[in-house]
Automatic annotation (TrEMBL):
Protein name per Swiss-Prot or TrEMBL: Citrate utilization protein B
Gene name of the encoded protein: citB
TM stretches of this protein: 121-142, 162-186, 241-262, 274-296, 316-333, 339-359
Keyword hit for Transmembrane helix: yes
Keyword presence, Membrane: yes
Signal peptide boundaries: none
InterPro entries: Citrate_utilization_prot_B, NarG-like_sf
Top-level taxon in the UniProt lineage: Bacteria
Keywords, alphabetical: Membrane, Plasmid, Transmembrane, Transmembrane helix
Length: 390
């Protein structure tokens, strides 16, 4: 009972912004106070208009603004108070450090929140475990990693129902864990939202901003600052290749599932079939996008990010790249005696990706979409600082 009362008091304090700030949160609050006085970057992205609606920055608002930041770097290179100035304003780096704290603070189960700080090790262990599991399963079921060609019949290696249960359980857990985490985040950052707000228009605006990656356009739509003060749209382009490539691969799996259960059409599917075409195009898009994002990440100016998060960033990029590459290799080898081995490798990588979805870089897209929705609701309301605001 006492534990429940303590949690209730903590939740109420968080809603009031009364909980003490961590060092990283305090740095965001300090720099935002300076930015709120300057306002030179007010037109750069959504963070600064949202900032101007506030005079103080309690914990919940700091987490909201940190996830609204797309880390484009434009404000850092435009800022007259950036290091080596004594004010040392560095919004991109300060926001990046708080974002990873957000994921851990709202993680479900809470005990696994620390995995975000150890994402590199977690990714490596998940990948090694996934590969070992499926390769050992092939050996147990067939006695060898090589076999006579099976005309692309994956289910001659692993039964369909077995794969459906294994991946279904892990995927549902990932969705539930992320869903609970972002729901907790949403409840803290959206107090006072009125029922009369136009939720449909706000949701449409948030979807528009997210799908276009509007705020990876930099301060003037010319792009991000990556390794220096030169603008480039490559980060937006490679993100688009990655996101839409991933969605096409997901669509391929969805269509194949409908074929299997609704139309009673079972794999293997022809190279010209819709699932194969969607997966092939999506896989190529993923290869291009992730290779480009890794290249940009290596070249990124360390002053505009959190160096401690590089293992999380690169681990996620690597898993997406390997998922795509192994899938395309599997397609090329599906009619050969190496199909079982290539299938086991692909499934092991996909399993590692699914296992790490709730506790890795994938979370940034979920929390950022929630922050964009909050912003699109908020900007349709009169400012609470305006005269006569209700």
């Amino acid at each position: 009972m006492q534990h429940l009362e303590a949690l209730t008091r903590e939740a109420a304090a968080l809603a009031r912004g009364a909980l003490p700030l961590t060092a990283d949160e305090g740095e965001v609050a300090r720099t935002l106070q300076i930015c709120n006085a300057c306002r030179y970057c007010e037109g750069f992205c959504a963070v600064f208009p949202a900032m101007t609606r506030r005079l103080e920055f309690p914990k919940a608002d700091i987490h909201y603004l940190a996830n609204l930041c797309h880390n484009c770097g434009a404000c850092y290179h435009a800022c007259q108070y950036a290091p080596p100035h004594e004010f040392a304003v560095n919004i991109p780096q300060a926001m990046a450090k708080v974002r990873v704290q957000t994921y851990g603070d709202y993680a479900f189960p809470a005990a696994l929140g620390g995995l975000y700080r150890r994402a590199g090790l977690t990714t490596a262990l998940a990948l090694a475990g996934g590969l070992a599991l499926f390769l050992l399963m092939v050996l147990a079921m067939r006695g060898s990693l090589l076999h006579a060609p099976l005309a692309g019949n994956f289910y001659a290696i692993f039964p369909h129902n077995l794969l459906a249960v294994m991946f279904g359980v892990v995927f549902v857990f990932a969705i539930v864990a992320l869903g609970i985490g972002v729901t907790r985040f949403w409840r803290q950052v959206t107090p006072g939202t009125r029922a009369s707000d136009d939720g449909g228009a706000a949701a449409g605006g948030a979807a528009h901003d997210a799908l276009r990656l509007k705020y990876l356009g930099g301060g003037h739509g010319e792009g991000c600052n990556n390794e220096d003060d030169a603008f480039t749209l490559l980060r937006r382009r490679f993100h688009h290749f990655t996101f839409y490539g991933f969605m096409l691969c997901f669509a391929a799996t969805t269509v194949a599932t409908l074929y299997h259960y609704l139309l009673d059409l079972h794999a293997p599917y022809a190279l010209t079939s819709l699932p194969v075409l969607l997966g092939t195009v999506g896989g190529i898009g993923l290869l291009i996008g992730t290779a480009g994002l890794f290249w940009l990440n290596v070249r990124r100016d360390p002053r505009t990010g959190d160096p401690d998060q590089k293992p999380m960033d690169r681990g996620f990029i690597a898993l997406l790249f390997l998922t795509s590459a192994s899938g395309l290799v599997l397609l090329a080898l599906r009619d050969t005696g190496a199909m079982a081995t290539s299938l086991a490798v692909h499934l092991g990588i996909v399993m590692a990706l699914f296992l790490t979805l709730p506790y890795g870089k994938f979370a940034h897209g979920i929390y950022r979409c929630a922050a964009l929705l909050k912003y699109n609701i908020e900007k349709r309301r009169p400012s609470d600082l305006a005269l006569g605001a209700d």
